[in-house]
Design a protein that fits this description.
The longest helix is centred in the N-terminal third of the chain and has 20 residues, at about 1-20. This protein has one domain (about 35-285). The N and C termini lie far apart (about 70 Å). It is globular. The chain is mainly beta. Strands 11, 14, 15, 18 and 19 form a five-stranded mixed β-sheet that branches. Strands 6-1-9-10 form a four-stranded mixed β-sheet, with no helix packed on it. A hairpin with an 8-residue loop joins strand 2 and strand 3. The protein has helices at about 1-20, 105-110, and strands spanning about 35-40, 50-55, 65-70, 75, 80-85, 90, 95-100, 115-120, 125-130, 140-145, 155-165, 170-175, 185-190, 195, 200, 205-210, 220-225, 255-260, 280-285. The relative contact order is 0.16.
């Protein structure tokens, strides 16, 4: 019995030694091709208590645009208004099924789909999905914009406007502090459409929005996203390690003004004074080069 015990111990030791000499297994995680997708809620007459949810139905991933309020939660800081919830989120490339739901605490409302469709995402590209029009009148529309923006020339930025109102507008862009130009940068931009991009010098740029053909501005002139150059966490003179923020002061950026309609009177969308008239908010479409 003592001999058998000793042999068993020796056998176990040998196995342990063999196990210790075995190379570690390497698990390779595949690189999943992704695209960027953002959701714009420009629907003035339909919402849940907390707005709308946009999510893909075919793959579980962190790409959901959750509780997106009408106008994408505009926030004004230092005179610049940004649609804070309009951010690109990574989504797996390919043919994807998605839906837009009302966001609400009541299941009967939260299960309501406003749209259920598919779109094809190409790896490395960004897309804007925008819901706009008039749902109550049967004129709700969902559009997908391929946000492939050409690289602006050296020292330039690209700018444009998205008209989410139902009527055409004229938009003028100009250097902040200068007089509003007589001619429009973008003339007769149709309702529920996006203009082309134009390039301009870097600097603080303002937008003036009027009805097509001219008239009283829809709202006060707005200053576009300014951005910030690459910087250092160590302070002035330190090694650059903080990426630049897109804006009209940072070359290589692309910026858009979204002109939103007013809320439909009596709808569940916000009914405060700020939502009783059209309004604008800015988003970025292209990040500038890192610079380090």
């Amino acid at each position: 019995m003592q001999r058998i015990t000793r042999l068993s111990i020796l056998g176990l030791a040998a196995l342990a030694g063999m196990s210790a000499c075995k190379p570690e297994s390497v698990i390779v995680t595949p690189a999943i091709p992704t695209a960027g997708v953002r959701f714009i809620n420009a629907l003035p007459d339909s919402t849940g208590s907390f707005g709308l949810d946009f999510r893909f139905l075919d793959i579980v991933e962190n790409s959901t645009a959750f509780r997106v309020q009408f106008r994408n939660s505009p926030t004004t800081t230092s005179g610049v208004t940004a649609a804070t919830s309009a951010q690109f989120r990574a989504a797996q490339a390919g043919s994807r099924r998605f839906a837009v739901f009302l966001d609400d605490t009541l299941q009967a409302i939260a299960s309501t789909k406003l749209k259920d469709s598919t779109l094809t995402l190409e790896a490395g590209k960004n897309y804007t999905v925008i819901l706009w029009g008039a749902a109550r009148a049967g004129q709700m529309k969902l559009s997908v914009i391929n946000e492939t923006v050409a690289e602006p020339p050296a020292g330039k930025v690209a700018v444009r406007v998205i008209n989410a109102t139902p009527t055409a507008i004229d938009v003028r862009r100009f250097v902040t502090g200068a007089a509003v130009p007589a001619g429009a940068t973008w003339s007769n931009v149709a309702g529920l459409s996006a203009s082309s991009f134009v390039t301009t010098d870097t600097g603080s740029i303002s937008y003036n929005v009027q009805p097509a053909g001219g008239g009283t501005p829809l709202f006060a002139d707005m200053i576009a996203l300014l951005g910030a150059p690459a910087s250092s966490s160590a302070g002035t003179g330190g090694k650059l390690d903080i990426e630049p923020l897109p804006g009209t002061r940072v070359a290589g950026s692309a910026v858009t003004l979204i002109v939103f309609p007013r809320s439909t009177a009596g709808a569940r969308t916000p009914q405060t004074a700020a939502f009783a008239v059209p309004a604008g908010a800015f988003v970025w479409d292209k990040r500038p080069p890192r610079g380090f």
